[in-house]
């Protein structure tokens, strides 16, 4: 009896694969080991086919997706060639396309993203409704291999996402993020089968009109992140180092697209539009300069010029014009949205999306509604009711209800991470399940049917309400670290429970390809790097010497600084440096430097050690510099004295310690709407690349350098 119960349990438990998201699965007896599959065979008949039904205008071919899959396998030390062939080969993957008719979304429509995964002892065949469907099938394989110790159970999965728009929105207007960070985020999202990355490219801090003078508003933090040399937008963007050039934007879009993720750009107006008013002050409403004065005859032409300049950059069929939280005249607003939608369609044949703001009104003369082909991104019930205002009037609606909003680091109203309880148990009136058609988590009457074809999917935003010094780049990732995979399961239509999610996520996290958002460093023990300078070895032809790493990880460094054998130290100055093969280490870490400072150049920020994500400085206070911001302690280092300086990254906090003194925490003072400062932790990666060198601003000695992941 006990055996039978166990057998039934196993059968039920394996009726879907417990990946993120889950995949429906009909299991057979046995498994195939990834190690035993020797090549990826791409069906010759479809190698150059692309999916034209998705939002991207640069869809990869089946063969290109196969090559990216091969790169991912390489990260598991599995090297397989990509070949062309007419049919499956024993001991291989076979990637092909099949009849799309069997892959249906929640509304019962054909979905290009569906796939069939057939795993037999002879090999694995993925048959996609399109190349994108095949790509999602490869994600299932990578995940199952991690979850099943390098093997895939035999059986068949026929899997289709319920909704076509699945993803996240990042506020890159009030906080800059480097291109590489965005590309890593796409890789992370793609692993969980999200296909949309909405990038909010312009915004400003809240214009507190009760408090700010006109002049202060005109100086308030406001940014436009695209950089063009075109004279028609000269002066709009004054911050090239915190912007995306055409080349960088192409890199972001094509990297994301290569993993099935479409970058959806947003340029925000006529609200949150202070950056345009700082450019052309006559375009602002005198009552609130963050709002455009649409009745000024120059406003719409100016915004058309901006869009004409940047539309050729955008490799997507839909663009976002913002149109959020406009509080001035509704008729002006509707005219603005329609004029922009017309312009965008005429110039580029693209569709337009807006945030739900002023719902349509019927049977009211003199009121022009927004075109029904403008898609609506619903976010709050005080703005609109997505079902009654939009869906019932034939608008398509994307669910971005603020029940899944995240505001980075601090907010008076929103959480700092995605609410996982809500993700897994969201709607009590719907037996505890949340999916993209659930706009209102507490009132079922407000929700359309699951199969309503006007529900596009869900995109969950992360806002940087309090600007650039609230967080470092990676804190956007940490705010979403478990939220992305959790939401991804539900956006697809998956069935994970919170408990299953926890197990799967912890197992998968270290194996997500093509990104290192956590800045992990491989190490044999808790000591990652251990240099002393008493015995430099091996003088190189280029005049550098090897610094032996005693950790056992062989992270040997190089230096052209003279060693001082009497003091067992390296003599560091602006004319020499010490370089490690590492660059950055994420939480948790302890970085310890024993050093003696003999001279600090008062004219510049002295750099003790610099890395890809941060720089440790003496300004002269001990300072971490990252993302263009300084985070200073009220402590400095005594001169002419050997001290041991430790930097500690512990969870979401960062500390420094000198010798055996108490730890002091780096904190950030976040300005809240000009009203007060909020002091919060800041989690900064350890800088690991270079000590000394041109412009370092100090002379002295380094006795040892150690990095550990114990805290
Ligand atoms: C995992 O697979 C390896 C061989 O690939 C095997 O040695 C090991 O015993 C397996 N572990 C478990 C828990 O099955
Ligand atoms: C908006 O612009 C119009 C036309 O230029 C002007 O008459 C009006 O005063 C402006 N309104 C505000 C509030 O700035
Ligand atoms: C315009 O876009 C639509 C929808 O994406 C597409 O079907 C159509 O072929 C495009 N027309 C042109 C001229 O590119
Ligand atoms: C929405 O579409 C339905 C069916 O095509 C039509 O009967 C109805 O009038 C439309 N409603 C509006 C507001 O356009
Ligand atoms: C920082 O981490 C602590 C402990 O894990 C947690 O309670 C807190 O909410 C985190 N803060 C932020 C802003 O994420
Ligand atoms: C998370 O969501 C649940 C269910 O909606 C709710 O009860 C809880 O208060 C939320 N937690 C936070 C921190 O907002
Ligand atoms: C639920 O939504 C319906 C439709 O909008 C509304 O009539 C009703 O008052 C709401 N119920 C509650 C308890 O808010
Ligand atoms: C989720 O469960 C339902 C009901 O068992 C099933 O029809 C569906 O295929 C499952 N979806 C996924 C993605 O596992
Ligand atoms: C010096 O040469 C070694 C190889 O011998 C190389 O690894 C190192 O990067 C070189 N250093 C510099 C500063 O060029
Ligand atoms: C960009 O340049 C400005 C002006 O020099 C500087 O204040 C800011 O820190 C820089 N930003 C970054 C991310 O380095
Ligand atoms: C540097 O530290 C001193 C105390 O040692 C403090 O008074 C000063 O405000 C700090 N400077 C900055 C810019 O944080
Ligand atoms: C870092 O340490 C904290 C405890 O301070 C722990 O909660 C967290 O899981 C650790 N993070 C990593 C990545 O090890």
UniProtKB/TrEMBL annotation:
Phylogenetic lineage: Eukaryota, Fungi, Dikarya, Ascomycota, Pezizomycotina
Positions of the Beta-hexosaminidase bacterial type N-terminal domain: 61-159
CDD domains, per database record: GH20_DspB_LnbB-like
Name of the featured protein: beta-N-acetylhexosaminidase
Top-level class of the enzyme under EC nomenclature: hydrolase
Statement: the UniProt record of this protein carries the keyword Glycoprotein: no
Source species, domain of life: Eukaryota
InterPro entries found in the cross-reference section: Beta_hexosaminidase_sua/sub, GH, GH20_Enzymes, Glyco_hydro_20_cat, Hex-like_dom2, HEX_bac_N
EC number: 3.2.1.52
